[in-house]
Design goal:
Length: 475
C-alpha cells in the first residue's frame, strides 16, 4: 500500500509571508503476513509561492484580509483547492505572533487551510520546524554529529540543536533584521523594536524615529546583537546582554557543537556577504548578516550551508510537522479531524501499573479538570509487548484514574508511545461497555503543555497523521 497526501505550509512572519505545498508519500513496509507498519517514505516540495512582505495595518495589527487574499491567490496558482489538503500547518512566527490580532488572522484562514491544518506558533516549535526545514536535523543524523541551526528572521532568532537527528535543545532571542525599519531611501527610521531601544540605550547610542540611521551606528548595533548570539552558543561568557535578548529559556550548553547552519531571511547575507546598498531592504538585515559572518560563530564553529535558508520555516511547516501514528490503532467512531487537544501526560514507569490510576487522578486534580470542559487526551508510555493481564490492568487503571471526569469528555483519547494502541483501545471500549467512544493511537511521544491534532485516517484507515504543538501562541 502506497498513498500520497497533500500538505500545505503557510508561514506568516515578522518580515515575510509565504506558502508551500508538499507531497508526502506513506507506505506499508510490512509483508502481507505481518502487522501493517506505515512509514513516511518521501517528503517533496511541489510548489513554492513568491515571498511577500507581511501586510500590516499598523505596527501592532496584521492585515488579515490581505493575508487571506495572498493565500487564496497562491492556492489558485498552485492548482489546489482546500478540500485536497490533508495536513500541514499555518504558523504565525517571530514578532508577528505577538501582534494584537494574530488569533483573528488564523481564524480568517481556517476555511482556506484544508481539512486538517493546524495553527501554531511559539519559539520552541518554530525553532524545531525551521531546523527540520533547513535540513539540519537530517544532516546531524547522516553525519552522526551535533549541529545547531540559527533561524534568523525579521524579528527573532530561533535556535535548535540536533544531535544524531534528535532535538536536544532550543532557545529564542529577540534578534532579527527588521527590528529597525527604515523609510524608503533611509529618509528616516520608521520603527524601533522596544528591546532594540533598550539595547541602544545600554550602549549609549542615540537613535530615534524620524531620524536617519547611519551605517556606522547600525554596524555597532548589529555587532552587539551578534555578541548575544556568541554568548548563547557558549563562545563568550554569558552576560546581562544575553539575559536581555532571550525571549524565554536559555540553551543548556552542556554539549559540544560540531556544526552551525543558518536559515531565515538574514542567512543569505551570512553565506554571501555583500558591500552593496546595505539598506536596500529598508532594514538592518544585511548588516546583521555581515556581522555574523565576521564573528566567532563562523570562525570557531564549522559552518555548513544546507538546502533551505529563507524558506526553511515554511518548508518545515509543510513537510515536517506531520508524524504518522503506529499501525495498530483503535477508533470506535470516525470523529476526525480532532484539533487542539491538550495533553495530560502521566509520568509513570511502564511496569508500574499499580500507581497508574493514582497518578492519573493526581494530574487531573493538578490541572483542576474535575469540572470538565475541553476535550483532553491522556498520554502514557505503555508497556512493550504486554501480557494480556498487563493490558487489562492498564485499561482498568485508566478507567479508575479518570473516574467521573470521563463523563465530561466526548471521547476517551489515549496516546501511547509503545505499540499497544489497538489492543488497549479495544480493551478500554469493552470495559466501558461500548458506551464511550475511544480513540487510541501509538508511536507518538508528547508531554504536558503539548497539544495535538489528529487527522483523517490514512492507509486504508490503519494510521492517522498527528501534529504535535508545543505552544499555540507566543504572546
Amino acid at each position: 500500500m502506497r498513498e500520497s497526501i497533500l500538505s500545505v505550509g503557510i508561514d506568516i512572519g515578522t518580515s515575510t509571508t509565504q506558502l508551500v505545498f508538499s507531497s508526502i508519500l506513506i507506505e506499508n513496509i510490512a509483508s502481507q503476513f505481518s502487522v501493517p507498519r506505515i512509514e513516511v517514505k518521501e517528503k517533496r516540495v511541489i510548489y513554492r509561492s513568491p515571498i511577500y512582505f507581511t501586510p500590516l495595518i499598523d505596527q501592532e495589527t496584521i492585515d488579515g484580509q490581505k493575508i487571506r487574499e495572498i493565500i487564496e491567490a497562491e492556492y489558485k496558482k498552485a492548482g489546489f483547492s482546500p478540500e485536497e489538503v490533508s495536513t500541514g500547518a499555518v504558523i504565525i512566527t517571530g514578532e508577528t505572533a505577538r501582534k494584537e490580532n494574530a488569533s483573528l488572522v488564523l481564524e480568517s484562514l481556517s476555511g482556506l487551510a484544508g481539512e486538517f491544518v493546524v495553527a501554531t506558533a511559539g519559539p520552541d516549535l518554530e525553532s524545531i520546524i525551521a531546523g527540520k526545514g533547513a535540513g539540519t536535523e537530517r544532516f546531524s543524523r547522516d553525519e552522526e554529529c551535533t549541529a545547531v541551526n540559527l533561524d534568523i528572521g525579521g524579528g527573532t532568532t530561533n535556535i535548535a540543536v540536533f544531535k544524531n537527528g534528535q532535538v536536544i535543545d532550543t532557545a529564542c532571542l529577540d534578534i532579527g533584521g527588521r527590528l529597525i525599519r527604515l523609510a524608503k531611501d533611509n529618509s528616516g527610521i520608521e520603527y524601533i523594536a522596544p528591546k532594540v531601544k533598550r539595547l541602544t540605550e545600554r550602549m549609549s547610542i542615540d537613535i530615534r524615529k524620524g531620524e536617519r540611521l547611519t551605517v556606522g551606528k547600525a554596524e555597532i548595533i548589529c555587532k552587539e546583537m551578534t555578541k548575544a548570539l556568541e554568548e548563547v552558543l557558549g563562545l563568550r561568557p554569558k552576560s546581562e546582554l544575553l539575559e536581555m535578548m532571550l525571549t524565554g529559556k536559555d540553551l543548556k550548553r552542556n554539549y559540544s557543537i560540531d556544526y552551525v547552519t543558518f536559515s531565515g531571511g538574514v542567512a543569505d547575507f551570512i553565506y554571501n556577504s555583500t558591500d552593496n546598498n546595505v539598506f536596500r531592504f529598508n532594514d538592518i538585515g544585511i548588516l546583521l548578516g555581515k556581522a555574523i559572518s565576521q564573528s566567532d560563530i563562523t570562525r570557531r564553529l564549522k559552518m555548513k550551508k544546507l538546502n533551505e535558508t529563507i524558506r526553511a520555516t515554511v518548508v518545515g511547516a509543510g513537510a515536517h510537522t506531520v508524524e504518522i501514528s503506529g499501525s495498530t490503532i483503535t477508533y470506535t467512531k470516525n470523529c476526525f479531524p480532532l484539533k487542539n487537544i491538550p495533553i495530560l501526560k502521566v509520568h509513570n514507569e511502564p511496569e508500574d501499573i499499580e500507581s497508574l490510576a493514582e497518578n492519573i487522578r493526581s494530574i487531573i486534580e493538578l490541572y483542576n479538570l474535575q469540572s470538565g470542559g475541553q476535550q483532553m487526551a491522556l498520554a502514557l508510555k505503555g508497556v512493550k509487548n504486554p501480557k494480556y493481564s498487563q493490558l487489562v490492568a492498564i485499561a482498568e487503571s485508566i478507567v479508575r484514574g479518570i473516574g467521573e471526569y470521563l463523563k465530561t469528555q466526548e471521547y476517551l483519547i489515549v496516546v501511547v508511545e509503545n505499540d499497544i494502541a489497538k489492543a488497549l483501545g479495544q480493551t478500554l471500549y469493552q470495559m466501558l461497555h461500548r458506551e464511550k467512544d475511544v480513540v487510541s493511537i501509538d508511536g507518538i511521544s508528547v508531554g504536558n503543555g503539548d497539544y495535538i491534532d489528529i487527522g483523517k485516517p490514512l492507509g486504508d484507515g490503519r494510521v492517522v497523521p498527528v501534529v504535535i504543538k508545543t505552544l499555540i501562541f507566543n504572546f
